[in-house]
Write a structure and sequence with these properties.
Elements: H1 2-11, H2 13-22, H3 32-36, H4 43-71, H5 73-84, H6 100-103, H7 106-114, H8 127-131, H9 136-164, H10 167-178, E1 184-189, E2 198-203, H11 205-210, H12 219-226, E3 234-239, E4 244-248, E5 254-259, H13 261-280, E6 289-297, E7 302-309, E8 320-324, H14 342-347, H15 356-375, E9 378-379, E10 382-389, E11 399-400, E12 406-407, E13 413-420, E14 424-425, H16 428-439, H17 451-466, E15 478-488, E16 502-508, E17 511-514, E18 531-535, E19 543-550, H18 555-558, E20 562-570, H19 571-574, E21 580-585, E22 593-602
Antiparallel strand pairs: 1-2, 2-6, 3-4, 4-5, 5-7, 6-7, 8-10, 9-14, 10-13, 11-12, 12-13, 15-18, 15-22, 16-17, 16-19, 19-20, 21-22
Helix pairs in contact: 2-4, 5-9, 9-10, 9-12, 15-17
Amino acid sequence: TRALGDECYKALAPMRERWAKERPSTLPTPDKAVFSNYTACTAEDRLPQLQRYTLMGHSLLRAAALHAARALEHPAAECKELGEEGEDVQRSSSVKASSPAELGNNSEIYKQHLQRQQSVVSTKSGASAAASTVDIPALVKLCIGESADHAARKKAVMSKLLGALGNAEHAALQRYCEWVPVARREFRRSANGSIPKMSCASYGDELFANLDGGSVTSPEQMLRSLGPNSEDFKVLSTNSKSGEFFFFSSDAKFLVKTVTDHEGEILRDMLPAYQSHLRNLPRSFIVRYAGLFRVEVEGGLSKFFTIMASVFDPSCKVHEHYDVKGSLFNRKAKEGESTGKDSNWFDSKRRLKLPKPLRRQLLAVHEQDCALLASFKVMDYSLLIGVHKLPDGAAQGSGFREGGGLWAEGDRELYFVGMIDFLIGFGFYKEAEHIVRTAQGHSEDASCVNPVDYALRQVTFVREKIFDNPEDLTGSVGLLRITGMSGRDLINTDGPFDDSDPYLQARLGLQSAKTEVIKDNLNPEWKGAELIVPVHAHHRNMNLELILWDAESSRALRGSDDFLGKIVLPMSSLLKGDPLDVHQRLEGVSSGIVIAKLVFEPAR
């Protein structure tokens, strides 16, 4: 608090000087002690000190407003003119609509992937009579048009302001524009023709517009593809009575789809972290959303809908496509389905063939993607993989393709990969499904598991079965080799007639490796065994966990494996490269020791 107070005091010096001259007599002059003494106060003095602090903050904000108003007087007038003359913003540089042949098979692929079981309908009583007459595509275009038009105007205004500011002010406003907080805006319309009285709330317009530097989801692109003057949507599914709909934009760049209230709330709550994640990881596999809306129509209809950028390039026909979750249990395409699943991918012996450095980089990115989703307690997401086969004579590149996609190494193919369907929370119904699968003996390989286990499993599956060269376990910075593993005096969780069946698991982030199970032994020794854990750059400040478990042979009856203790080691000490001999008491249990030798080997 003191450090922040000092920083504020120095940064606001010009404001304090101006305020000292222009403040009302009822407000005190800013004092450095206001910023630094609060934490040093006794409990009974803190309320007056906090009141004084609040008063100072108020006075400095007023000073900042005065200073800003005077500095921006001229550009503000220009911005006002700009805002009043922009009626034709949405008409700029329209995009030619693609023909059905040009759209290829992308729409059918998404229909199979994204049109899951019908969402829970959120309607009020009496909704069907009014809602059944709604022109849903027109309603959606109106919502998107109002929101994108507002975002485009604000972007133009901010651009004008940035051009009129000095370096310091320019940097501050630029940061605000790039990291704008999530805002909710509501647009209302009176009844007009086929559209009844309605309101539309948009969430985070500027946030979505700034993803990938605006190259994918800018407001101008939204207006061209989805605005009121865009070509007609390609309708994949619609139900006017329930309000469910699923559209493709005519240029196949965006999908518009209803989601349940719970899914909409998950995305809304995720937005700040989602923005930060994609800024820090521009190669993230997580699909780019372009908008989140809630529309309410007179008569009772109330729905969330999202806009999602297509994983595929509309100009490239997708010849093979797969929906991969990370489990082989019940994950095979049914007869008549063209989209393959995990088992189809595995049985076909397909792999993503990429240069070694790029492979390691993308595996690190995928792990961080899964970690973000696990932190929001969501699961059941998929990797959507599309394969475009290059025609004869077409040029082929290497690595990342401009415009999206990954060039295959050694094959004339282009890969498209994106993580979709990540708004499914692990709630009551999913927990119940997991209990049923556990009773059936599929607690680990069923699609429905808790979010952390789901993320762990998918990270391992992608490394071993999606990318080529699975025997290469080196991460982006190296690998950790663990040998000489044994345990001493472990606790017994199997009752008086049996001993524990231990195994050792090494966990670093979402990377995991484990030994074989040793039956009925409280002093196990894994002779000759070796665990290898990939180490990526984002692991540098994490901890390595060595965890001992008691394997349950009958999980259907007894549930998950029992905890036998763990030790925690900071990776910062292991990355120095010196071998570390561990002989350490287990945490979280009454007795037990783990012994191991750990060596970090940097990537070559």
